[in-house]
Amino acid sequence: MINFTVEDHDGNRQSIEAPDDMGLSLMEVLKASEYPVLATCGGMALCATCHVEILEGKSELGVATDTELDQLEALPEYFPTSRLACQIRISDILEGSVVKLRGEDN
């Protein structure tokens, strides 16, 4: 199991424990944890409604793909630590990370 922290739109933080052996994306775990992540494209990196900011642990995640960057750079609010949750797989690289929700809420 992987443990990381999610900060919601109101600044509240909650620890999340997610399985690392199912190939899930961060977006899928956030939705399953009932966070207001729209993910209207279903995880194809086409809508950026699963936009998150990695507050802690970004260096372990590597760099975003060009497709991901194209979506992020078109957002009105884009940070150097922005990522699309659909493009991050749950694995040990997320252990101890802090992720802030940035995408549109429902």
Automatic annotation (TrEMBL):
GO biological process: P450-containing electron transport chain
Keywords, alphabetical: 2Fe-2S, Iron, Iron-sulfur, Metal-binding
GO molecular function: 2 iron, 2 sulfur cluster binding; electron transfer activity; metal ion binding
Gene3D superfamilies attached to this UniProt entry: 3.10.20.30
Superkingdom, natural source: Bacteria
Cofactor names: [2Fe-2S] cluster
Segments forming a coiled coil: none
Classification via CDD domains: fer2
Location of the 2Fe-2S ferredoxin-type domain: 1-105
UniProt xrefs under PANTHER family: FERREDOXIN-2, MITOCHONDRIAL (PTHR23426:SF65), FERREDOXIN/ADRENODOXIN (PTHR23426)
Sequence similarity: Belongs to the adrenodoxin/putidaredoxin family.
Name listed for the protein in its UniProt record: Ferredoxin, 2Fe-2S
